[in-house]
Design goal:
There is one protein chain. The protein has 118 residues and is α+β, with helices and mostly antiparallel strands. The protein folds into two domains: 1-45, no CATH class; 47-118, no CATH class. The chain is built from four helices and four strands. A four-stranded mixed sheet has the order 2-1-3-4. A hairpin with a 2-residue loop joins strand 3 and strand 4 (98-103).
Length: 118
């Protein structure tokens, strides 16, 4: 089970205050719209993605990923490269709520499922 951090406590205080305010002013019905707006604005501000690989990406490889994401989303996007040996090879790209998993581990898992189905 996850332990509460100071940030979690602060968030709970702010949320409790907001919900209390909306309830006291008869505007509790705005909560779903506020949640949607908050989510949307958070996504708009996200401009960094992550490329997870077993070995470091070259500058050209990183630029190709950044250019592809930037073109798709219409905003400049940078990509940080995280090294994880357990993916064996290939790449996992994460940006916002999108995940593209083309790691060797995932490919082997898909192959294993196909073989077991036959």
């Amino acid at each position: 089970m996850k332990q509460n951090t100071n940030d979690d406590r602060e968030i709970n205080v702010v949320l409790s205050g907001l919900v209390g305010y909306l309830q006291n002013t008869g505007k509790k019905h705005l909560l779903p719209h506020l949640a949607t707006q908050l989510h949307s604005r958070t996504l708009e501000q996200t401009t960094e993605g992550e490329a997870i690989t077993a070995i470091p990406l070259s500058g050209d490889q990183r630029k190709e990923i950044e250019d592809g994401l930037s073109k798709k989303y219409g905003i400049p996007i940078t990509v940080k490269n995280t090294i994880r040996k357990n993916i064996l090879g290939g790449i996992i790209v994460r940006f916002r709520d999108m995940v593209i998993d083309e790691s060797l581990a995932m490919m082997l898992n898909r192959l294993k499922k196909q073989v077991n189905l036959k």
